[in-house]
Design a protein that fits this description.
single chain; mainly alpha; globular; Homeodomain-like_sf; HTH-type_TetR-like_transc_reg; DNA-binding; DNA-binding transcription factor activity; HTH_TetR
Amino acid sequence: MAIIEAAERLFGSHGIDAVSLRQIGLEANVANKSAVNYHFGDRAELIRAIWQHRLPALEARRKMLLRQIYERGQTRDPHTVARLLVQPNYELLDARGVHRYTAFFRHALRWRQGQELRAREMGTTPASLEAIGLLKDLAGDIPHDLLMHRLRYACCSLFDMIFDRDCDLAEGRPVMPEDSFLAEGIDMIVTLCLRPVHQP
C-alpha cells in the first residue's frame, strides 16, 4: 500500500514518465531498491494497481449519485450527468484534504504509453458505463469516439484546474469558492463535450 500511495503522489506531482520506480521506492521508505519491480513488474502494472486501489470507492460513490439522479428525474440534465462523471474523483481526498488521485489521474489520461491500459481499465465498472451511457444519450449525433475524445480532454482540463487550486491553497493564494469552482468546471465539460459537430 505504501508503494501505491507513493506512486500516486509522485506521478501526480511530476508526471508518469518523469518519476523512476527507484524514486517511488525511496518515497515509500522501502529498503529494497528492487521492491517496486518485484511487486509490480513495471510502470503500467503500478498504474493499474493505483486504479484498482481507488476504483471501489469511486464506483460506490458513483452508484449513489446515479440512484439520486434517477430518483430526481435528472438523467436528461447535462450538468447533472457531467457532475456524475467527475464528482467522485473530486471528492476523493488524502488525509491532508488534497486531491492526490485527481492529480495522478490527469497524467494517466495523457500518458502516451497507457492507451491500451486506459481502454482496458477505465470506464469499465458498471456505474461508469452507465454514466457514460447517459452522456451518450445527450450527445445526439456526436460520434462515440469523438465524444470520448472530448470527455478525456475536458476532464484533463478540469483536473489541471483542481491541481492548480490545491497548489494555490497550499501556498496561501486566493481561490474561487469550492462550489463555484466545481460548477465552472462542470459547465466547461458540458460545453466541450456536447457542442454540435462542425460540418465541413
